[in-house]
Specification:
Elements (H helix, E strand, L loop, with lengths): L1 H66 L5 H7 L3 H31 L6 H18 L13 H11 L14 H10 L1 H19 L5 H18 L29
Helix pairs in contact: 1-3, 1-8, 2-3, 3-5, 3-7, 4-8, 6-7
Length: 257
């Protein structure tokens, strides 16, 4: 009788241990999921913010050039800037597009592998990124193809921007210094990034061409930022403005201050 009771107690103990172990493992996995998503979402949030900020400056610069005696962003720093300014504006703008595409590729690769779930939030994030990708890919009626990046090119650029050695949940994009270094030392890398650099050239020389695409992209990036940072903890309301073209000198009076 005692042996039977002992056996029952042993079985119950093993079952309890198994249940507790399963729950502990589930909790650890849940924390890992939260950590992965927090890390990736913050990275995507920052790169989306940096890209929309540059696009905002380009669009605002177009209006400054048209309606005031001042020089806008591309006019002042690219077309009439110093050698150092031209190099920085050209390279950093290409980098911001490439970095964003890099994080999109990381999300696409790692979300299924990390078993982060098919949650509504994950689907919404991918949907917003898909909209931005469609805008980059879309054919326009403008004379210039500035900042039109085909879907396959988006994937290729994103792939090349992923830093080596990262595992799912631990991946990162190349930083600006590494990006500049690879432009100089890696012919294959430079050839894929050449179109991005030429897009900046076109945007400076033919400002009317990319306005519609850039305006749509800037608004869509703000939409993505609003989704990733709904509580405005990283970027307050004043730092996430949708660009609104101003069609008269009076409307641009504040730019003369």
């Amino acid at each position: 009788m005692i042996s039977v009771v002992s056996a029952v107690i042993a079985v119950i103990g093993a079952a309890v241990t198994a249940v507790l172990g399963y729950r502990l493992q589930a909790q650890v996995k849940s924390r890992e999921r939260i950590d992965y998503m927090s890390r990736y979402r913050d990275a995507l949030l920052w790169t989306a913010f940096d890209l929309q900020s540059r696009i905002y400056n380009i669009l605002r610069g177009y209006d400054v050039d048209r309606h005031t005696d001042h020089k806008g962003f591309l006019q002042g720093f690219y077309l009439e800037g110093s050698t150092r300014q031209v190099r920085y504006v050209r390279t950093s703008t290409a980098f911001l597009f490439a970095e964003y595409l890099g994080w999109v590729e990381i999300f696409r690769r790692d979300l299924p592998f990390l078993d982060l779930g098919d949650s509504k939030q994950n689907r919404q994030a991918m949907s917003l990124m898909a909209k931005i990708g469609s805008t980059l890919n879309a054919a326009g009626t403008n004379e210039t193809e500035a900042f039109r990046i085909f879907r396959g090119e988006q994937r290729a650029i994103g792939e090349l921007m992923i830093a080596e050695g990262g595992e799912p949940g631990q991946r990162a994009c190349l930083g600006y210094a590494s990006f500049c270094g690879k432009l100089e030392s890696d012919e294959d890398f430079a050839s894929w990034m050449a179109d991005l650099l030429e897009h900046v050239d076109l945007a400076a020389r033919e400002p009317l061409g990319p306005r519609k695409r850039l305006l749509t992209l800037q608004h869509q990036l703000i939409e993505l930022i609003d989704f990733l940072d709904p509580g405005k903890e990283r970027f307050p309301e004043g730092q996430r403005s949708r660009f609104r073209p101003m069609e008269s000198p009076r409307g641009l009076a504040h730019l003369n201050e």
